[in-house]
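FORM 12-B: Structure-to-Sequence Request
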């Protein structure tokens, strides 16, 4: 979803991104374009830059990172492609819009890459890397809206970590790791107030609720509810 609420971008497994204009009164989508990234591509993950100016796409066939500029009318223009050294799926941009973060499949590390505020492209190759607990999947992140440099990470196993992102360098530190009740935490989300973290465990079939300390984001397990195979979260703010 574009931050203006005017456009919806849908990543398709056919190597395309379909863009819809949204009716501000009814929410009804009207297709603008079916943008082709690469006919041989098999894209896996998509994230919008907080500015609404850029879209980042991960692709596992070939292993690549794609960057598209979002034009004034919501349509896309491909501006960058770089080969990756492994399979990436979920991509994350921190709330400041300065860093792109991702991991490789079943690889116990998280990478942050600094982004140009003008072009949206990586400023230097490589980036900072943080070792994390052994992962059974991709590292998934959720940022705390009340603490801009605070993030939470899950690894597709029974661990959830609280970390700190250095907004000057992109360096990362893990400050706390808590055990969940299950063994397959994959969905993470912080509510808009920054007070609560929700963790969905696919195999346990449970959404766990943690309180987030307003000072440092420290996690405390407080509640949970049984829900079959929770895979993603979205918050409604009427």
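FORM 12-B RESPONSE
SEQUENCE OUT:
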């Amino acid at each position: 979803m574009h931050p203006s609420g005017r456009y919806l971008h849908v990543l398709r497994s056919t190597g395309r991104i379909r863009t819809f204009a949204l009716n501000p009164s009814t929410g009804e989508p009207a297709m603008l374009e079916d943008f082709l990234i690469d006919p041989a591509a098999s894209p896996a993950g998509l994230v919008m830059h907080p500015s609404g100016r850029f879209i980042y796409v991960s692709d596992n066939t070939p292993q690549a990172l794609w960057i598209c500029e979002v034009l004034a009318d919501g349509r896309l223009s491909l501006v960058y492609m770089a080969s990756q050294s492994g399979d990436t799926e979920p991509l994350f941009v921190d709330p400041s819009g300065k860093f792109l973060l991702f991991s490789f499949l079943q690889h116990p590390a998280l990478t942050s890459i600094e982004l140009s505020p003008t072009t949206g492209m990586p400023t230097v190759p490589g980036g900072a890397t943080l070792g994390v607990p052994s992962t059974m999947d991709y590292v998934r992140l959720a940022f705390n809206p009340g603490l801009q440099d605070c993030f939470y990470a899950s690894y597709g196993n029974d661990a959830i970590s609280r970390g700190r992102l250095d907004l000057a360098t992109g360096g990362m530190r893990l400050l706390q790791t808590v055990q969940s009740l299950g063994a397959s935490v994959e969905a993470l989300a912080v509510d808009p107030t920054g007070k609560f973290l929700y963790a969905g465990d696919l195999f346990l079939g449970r959404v766990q609720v943690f309180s987030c300390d307003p000072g440092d984001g420290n996690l405390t397990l407080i509640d949970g509810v049984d829900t079959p195979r929770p895979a993603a979260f979205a918050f409604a703010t009427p």
